[in-house]
User: What shape does this take?
Amino acid sequence: MERHTVYRFQAHWAQRWRAGRVLIAGDAAHLMPPFAGQGMCAGLRDVYNLVWKLDLVLRGVATDHLLDSYGTERTPHVRHFIDVSIGLGKVICVPDEHEAAQRDTQLRAAIADPSLAPPPPPRPAWAPAS
Assistant: This one.
């Protein structure tokens, strides 16, 4: 072994995404384990959710109450992908050699016979705006 490092992956999300004129997005709003590759993707989805709302508010087409829906809409989506990432981490990071061999055997069997594969996880639901 040439290199060995222990990483501590975390999963968190903000309780509040807006406080007056301050809005948080990306890593400021959520920490995502790396296993699903969704950290930056989730941040981009945060910005996509915010940009059109900010445009309407800044042009005077909507009141700033529109921004209150941001955290309500994003939290369930972020939590879903955090859960998916944690689940993948449990499959990927198996330190026991025997357990890893069993996992690999099950994965190969599911590749050979897709009926042995587990069902896909449910899609994230849209949260109602508050």
Q: What stands out?
A: The chain has a mean pLDDT of 90.
